[in-house]
Write a structure and sequence with these properties.
It is a single chain. This protein has three helices and nine strands, in the order E-H-E-H-E-E-E-H-E-E-E-E. It is of the alpha+beta class and about 150 residues long. The chain folds into two domains: about 70 residues, 2,3-Dihydroxybiphenyl 1,2-Dioxygenase, domain 1; about 70 residues, 2,3-Dihydroxybiphenyl 1,2-Dioxygenase, domain 1 (Roll). Strands 5, 6, 7, 8 and 9 form a five-stranded mixed sheet that branches. Strands 1-4-3-2 form a four-stranded mixed sheet. Strand 8 and strand 9 form a beta hairpin. The relative contact order is 0.18.
Length: about 150
């Protein structure tokens, strides 16, 4: 019997309060809105285990077309907990990391839009410059600029 093979990671899901704010934030980073839709009904609740649900979703895609973020705004049932201000060492969802060309320029742009640098931009050996930022709705993201052989 042949072993089932993993094909790819399809997307990472993030629950938000405002789709418009989250879309705008991720567009500033460089993702593109691929589409928006409402997902509702008993069939969807069977997948999530939430029963009947109504969720607005937006699919964001990276410039290379290989990675996606699914942003979800739950109308029913409403969200029951909030992990957005959890520190980096919390269990569960932590952050999404994006590779960028110029970390200083990206950080500057995002701060002008209300994002906050979590710590500082640091250099790891001669390989990377890295940082964490809290963006729209407190979503934690990482930024990495590869140094040397780009």
């Amino acid at each position: 019997m042949a072993k089932n093979k993993l094909l790819r990671m399809d997307n990472v899901g993030i629950v938000v309060e405002s789709l418009d704010d989250a879309i705008s934030f991720f567009e500033e980073i460089g993702l593109t809105l691929e589409g928006r839709a409402t997902v509702e009904g008993e069939w969807a609740g069977r997948v999530t285990g939430l029963g009947s649900q109504c969720v607005e979703i937006a699919m964001m895609v990276t410039p290379d077309g290989h990675s996606r973020l699914e942003l979800s705004r739950f109308l029913t049932p409403p969200p029951i907990s909030d992990h957005r201000t959890a520190p980096v060492n919390s269990l569960g969802y932590l952050r999404v990391m994006f590779a960028v060309e110029d970390i200083d320029e990206m950080v500057s742009r995002l701060i002008k839009r209300g994002a906050q640098l979590v710590g500082e931009v640091v250099q790891y050996k001669d390989s990377y410059r890295l940082c964490y930022i809290r963006g729209a709705e407190g979503i934690l993201i990482g930024l990495a600029e590869q140094l040397g052989n780009k």
